[in-house]
Specification:
- By secondary structure, the chain is mainly beta.
- It has a domain of about 30 residues.
- About 0% of the residues lie in helices and about 55% in strands.
- It is built from no helices and six strands.
- The protein has a six-stranded antiparallel β-barrel.
- A hairpin with a 3-residue loop joins strand 2 and strand 3.
Length: about 80
C-alpha cells in the first residue's frame, strides 16, 4: 500500500498579486488566498486565458516572481504548483 501523500502546510495570504503568462506578457491582477511551499490558490477575473505555465509575483514587475504550473481550475479560482 503506498504511503499517504502529506500536503504542505498552507498559510493564509489574502493579498493582491499578478500572474503573467509564459513569455512575459499579459499580466493580470489576481488575489492569492493561500500559499504553501509547493503551490498557491488564486482567483482571477478571467481564468479562461490561464493554462499551462504562468509566473506569480507580488509586484507587476515581470522579472520577479515564481514560475508556476496551473494544476486545477474551478470557476474563477485556480491552483498552481511552483516549478523551476
Amino acid at each position: 500500500m503506498p504511503a499517504a501523500k502529506k500536503r504542505d502546510v498552507r498559510r493564509s495570504v489574502q493579498q493582491t498579486a499578478w500572474v503573467t503568462l509564459e513569455g512575459g506578457f499579459a499580466a493580470r491582477q489576481c488575489f492569492v488566498h493561500d500559499m504553501s511551499a509547493t503551490g498557491a490558490k488564486l482567483t482571477v477575473s478571467d481564468s479562461s486565458v490561464l493554462s499551462g505555465r504562468v509566473r506569480l509575483a507580488f509586484s507587476r514587475d515581470a522579472k520577479t516572481g515564481r514560475h508556476c504550473q496551473v494544476v486545477w481550475r474551478r470557476g474563477s479560482s485556480f491552483g498552481v504548483k511552483f516549478v523551476r
